[in-house]
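Holo prediction. Input below; ligand is magnesium ion.
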Amino acid sequence: MSLLSVIVPCYNEEEAIPFFYEAMQTVAGDFSQKYPEVDFEYIFIDDGSTDKTLDVIKNLRDKDKRVHFTSFSRNFGKEAALYAGFSKAAGDYIVCMDADLQDPPELLADMYSALVTEGFDSAATRRVTRKGEPKIRSFFARCFYKLMNRISDIEFVDGARDYRIMTRKMVDAILELGENNRFTKGIYSWVGFKTKWIEFENVERVAGETKWSFFGLLRYSFEAILGFSTAPLSCVISLGFIVTAFAFILIIFVVIRTLLFGDPTNGWPSMICIVVFFAGTQLMCTGIVGAYLGKTYLETKNRPIFIAREEE
Ligand code: UDP
Ligand code: MG
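Structure of the complex:
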């Protein structure tokens, strides 16, 4: 027998969880006919929900002993929830799935088959359409993936979901990355292993609302850049060199002009432009360096990634 752990991060998902569980039961039924050697376990992570999410999960737990849960002491974010799930999962195969059914459970059999029959370590999913999503959000998402692929050594797949099945070995590798600034999609890619990509059409949320605002996503993309690329630091160095070279040429020009034509006391506008320009670039560069320093500072504190209030 082998065990398949299904990790479900939940933040205010009281409406969606019953649909999710129902859909999973159906899929698990079909799954067991095809692969009778597989047992399921469900690991719900209540990420500090403020609605009845925890009660809904506890009700499932009373009915079905394959359901386990960890409830956080506050909202730590989906990345922390996934980490908690990975550390709690006992399975030989581990899959993580959103509670809102945007990660179609019907794909699970194919994903599992990629591991057991085709020898992959992981089967990941990506959305090929972004139907139902605001246009502007899709546009920025595309730009983000293009940028990340340029400035980072690892591969970022456009439309990739966190929905992914992995072998025990890969999850153990992920658990070894104990950093606080967790951008899970980057971590998946960083640990490597052979991954099969399975594509699907975007599905809209079954109930409840998305937890992402536009600015939330923007912050998330900054986390990704800070976590997986030092390109902004190199840009700062290049910019420093370019500006210094420009200043050098300017100095020569001003000195020669003064020697040839004397020193008329004009040039205040150009002086102000230069002062403001340099003040701006310096602040910006210090800010970029500061952003990395801030992350380093937080990492050195070595705080736990999540704090559980209750678990079963
Ligand atoms: N989620 C979480 N903690 C958070 C935000 C979200 O555990 O702070 C969970 C949420 O309950 C859902 C999954 O992460 O199961 C994806 O969230 P959502 O559907 O809001 O994101 P989207 O699909 O819109 O990208
Ligand atoms: Mg969703």
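The CA atoms of residues 255 and 261 lie 10 Å apart. That is the main takeaway for now.
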